[in-house]
What does this fold into?
Amino acid sequence: MISINKLSRNFGSIVAVSGVSFDVGKGEVLGFLGPNGAGKSTLMKMLACFLKPDSGTATVCGHDILENPVEVRKSIGYLAENVSLYNEMTVGDFLNFVCDARGIKRNNRKQALDRIVPMCSIESVYYQTIETLSKGYKRRVGLAQTLIHDPDVLILDEPTDGLDPNQKHEVRRLINQMSKDKCIIVSTHILEEVDAVCSRAIIISKGKIQADSTPEKLKAEYKCGLDEIFRKITKT
It folds into this structure.
């Protein structure tokens, strides 16, 4: 569902992403790991058509990010690290606004809201303004707008950031539930999350892929846990 071919992006003299290539198929949950500044968010923004690559390209559900970005955006749910929410809106107003933007109307809208509100456990704050919400609830609202159109591909940048342990467990359970029918990329600094939800892990450092395997194979190869593997790979 995702095919990335030699994507590169620089910011002046800073090389953020350098010739990265990989594929992700339906039913895969890819953990995308790397230290701060490794290029994770930049690559995800290129996939979501928020940034243009300097070279290379990618396809999402058969649509090229350069030639057909509108169809790419229709195919994905993108949870940015700092998702834009409108603080003066209630949660319900915001989700209805997202439905307007996504072209979800009438009965389809009711079905989408009836599905997504309990899925993200935001019933109790549905009529509150977003500015009154805790960081955890804001993250859940961001996740709801990501999932409301039931996309085939999910790109989730730090999806459990700001959540308490119970909320993290619920989001991980949700990702596991969705994994059979979708293609999912999860960027995270929480390595236990990779063990909990990911069928594959890519470790990126200095804009280049340093490892691409399953968590189990990585632990067997390095004979240690993911935390130590991460340190060994990203410090070289």
Observations:
- The radius of gyration is 18 Å.
- Residues 106-119 form the longest helix (14 residues).
- The mean pLDDT is 93.
- The CA atoms of residues 112 and 148 lie 6 Å apart.
